[in-house]
Write a structure and sequence with these properties.
Layout lengths: L17 E3 L4 H17 L4 E4 L3 E7 L2 H10 L8 E10 L7 E12 L5 E13 L6 H5 L9 E5 L8 H9 L2 E4 L7 H14 L5 E3 H5 L1 H10 L12 E10 L13 H4 L3 H13 L2 E3 L7 E4 L4 E8 L12 H5 L9 E8 L8 E10 L2 E8 L6 E7 L8 E4 L6 H8 L7 H14 L2
Parallel strand pairs: 2-6, 3-4, 3-7, 4-6, 7-8, 8-9, 10-14
Antiparallel strand pairs: 1-5, 5-6, 10-15, 11-13, 12-13, 13-14, 15-16, 16-17, 17-18
Length: 426
């Protein structure tokens, strides 16, 4: 039996509101609403209460929970009915305990006279109680409203708790940009989706690369370039990394903190799926990863046969590092740029040959955090670069606002996710 105790020694969460017993959550919230109504009667301000969804945030520690709570200020226009902020303390040595806090969040809509209100319940589950978190928070969810789950950071090694929370949810939101072990977590998510076909899941990083996907698509919207899409045989993608203290090179000693190539991998997976490519069959394998450089290289083929190029392209030519035969491929490599958030896309180049004519389509951020240059180079017709506004980073609150407007599954993202996992297969 879980020991429900709210007198947690040493834990003070002033940002979470009033510390209450779990059984007193609804009564306390009702009291707070009555107090709010009294403020309206005394003409202090107008409280707007709208309820269209439950928003469950699952955080691994107090620090990330407080950051998520602060971010909610920017989501006041999404008409959240109730936020349940679940903090999981999975330390096996921790006592089994459940602590709850409640508050009403109030933010101005037009001016301070008219304010939007929603309820926030913060739940800290520690020890063995964390394993029962889905059962613990279920009574706190407002009935007849969709439930959105935002899972912060990596997926746990054991997915039991995650799976139980997903069963309660209408839609699950992750952010692979915050993963410490991106490859392990993305593989776990892909496996989970294949086993749970009814689950709807999305990734904030998918929203971050949307402007880049749109720019790539715009190249081939032009009638004079459409036929070059079928001739693409080489794709190069670069993502930003921060310089180290000692050198501007990426080394294996700082990969854990400096490298998160998920945006580049998602873009590569999307292109692989869109172009109907598959990993090339070869005795030596079609996938190589250079741990020293942090670069990836794949040899790929179309389902209907080898990618056609003017001459055979090897992975050596793609990476300038490794030699293994292939007819085409994808390369991902890091690029040191101190002015960009690590993981941000900063370069993509698609090379195509059709009828012995080569065309190179490039998007390059260079040193500008807010713009990219797009260009098309052909021997017979080189187009001048075009400057396009693309912010290097997008606020999580903006991306969340868009995700909370969607209820169904994103099949394109799911296909891309599975394509990424296929690329990363050992």
């Amino acid at each position: 039996m879980t020991n429900h105790t709210t007198n947690s020694p040493g834990i003070h969460l002033p940002w979470a509101g009033k510390l209450v017993q779990p059984a007193d959550v609804e009564e306390t919230l009702s009291y707070l609403w009555h107090m709010s109504a009294d403020n309206v009667r005394t003409s202090q301000n107008i409280r707007v209460r709208t309820s269209v969804l439950n928003f469950v945030i699952c955080a691994p520690n107090l620090e990330s929970a407080q950051k998520a709570s602060a971010l909610l200020r920017d989501l006041s226009s999404t008409h959240i009915g109730r936020v349940t902020l679940l903090i999981l303390d999975t330390d096996p040595g921790a006592a089994s305990r459940v602590s709850t806090w409640v508050t009403l969040r109030s933010f101005p809509i037009i001016s301070d006279v008219m304010r939007h209100h929603f309820e926030q319940i913060t739940v800290l589950a520690s020890g063995s109680a964390a394993n029962s978190s889905a059962h613990i928070i279920q009574p706190f969810l407002k009935p007849d409203l969709p439930i959105y789950l935002w899972w912060l950071n990596d997926l746990p090694a054991r997915l039991d708790t995650f799976q139980e929370l997903v069963k309660l949810s209408s839609r699950v939101i992750i952010d692979s940009n915050s993963f410490y072990t991106p490859e392990r977590s993305i593989k776990a998510i892909s496996t989970f989706l294949q086993q749970s076909q009814e689950s709807a899941l999305s990734d904030l990083n998918w929203g971050r690369i949307t402007p880049w996907r749109q720019l790539v698509a715009q190249f081939f919207d032009a009638p004079e370039f459409q036929h070059y899409l079928a001739g693409v045989y080489k794709i190069e993608v670069e993502h930003a990394v921060a310089p180290t203290q000692e050198t501007d090179k990426v080394t294996s000693t700082n990969q854990t903190t400096a490298l998160n190539p998920m945006r580049a991998l998602l873009l590569a997976g999307w292109l692989k799926s869109t172009l109907n490519w598959k990993l090339e069959d070869s005795d030596g394998g079609a996938y190589e990863y250079d741990a020293q450089k942090g670069s990836y290289a794949w040899g790929l083929m179309r389902e209907t046969g080898p990618l056609q190029a003017q001459s055979v392209i090897t992975i050596t030519e793609l990476t300038n590092e490794i030699g293994r035969g292939g007819h085409g491929g994808i390369v991902i490599r890091p690029r040191v740029q101190s002015n960009l958030e690590p993981g941000s896309l900063c370069f993509i180049r698609l090379t195509s040959i059709v009828d012995d004519k080569q065309a190179v389509f490039t998007i390059d951020r260079e040193d500008d955090a807010y713009h990219v240059l797009t260009s098309v180079d052909m021997p017979q017709d080189t187009r001048p670069p075009r400057t396009v506004s693309v912010a290097a980073s997008q606020e999580a609150s903006t991306l969340l606002h868009e995700e909370l407007e969607i209820l169904g599954r994103d099949y394109l993202y799911e296909d891309t996710l599975h394509a990424v996992v296929e690329l990363l297969a050992d």
